[in-house]
User: Which sequence fits this backbone?
């Protein structure tokens, strides 16, 4: 999966269009490891997952990035 995400990011940068992942996605993905560590330290207790968008995730328009790069090769 990493190849596809990185490749899509590079292609979007070359075409000067929005990447498939934004800063909010990156922050959410980065939070998984420290939240997992905190859960383990607390005997598997669930951890609250932070909302990095401050509630805006429900109002964000979907971005169909695959249609923006029709000649992209996988």
Assistant:
């Amino acid at each position: 999966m990493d190849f596809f995400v990185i490749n899509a990011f590079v292609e979007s940068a070359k075409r000067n269009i929005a990447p498939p992942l934004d800063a909010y996605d990156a922050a959410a993905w980065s939070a998984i490891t420290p939240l997992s560590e905190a859960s383990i330290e607390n005997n598997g207790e669930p951890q609250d997952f932070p909302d990095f968008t401050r509630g805006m995730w429900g109002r964000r328009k979907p971005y169909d990035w695959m249609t923006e790069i029709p000649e992209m090769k996988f």
Notes: The chain has one domain: 2-68. The chain has a mean pLDDT of 81. The radius of gyration is 16 Å. Residues 27 and 52 are 7 Å apart (CA to CA).
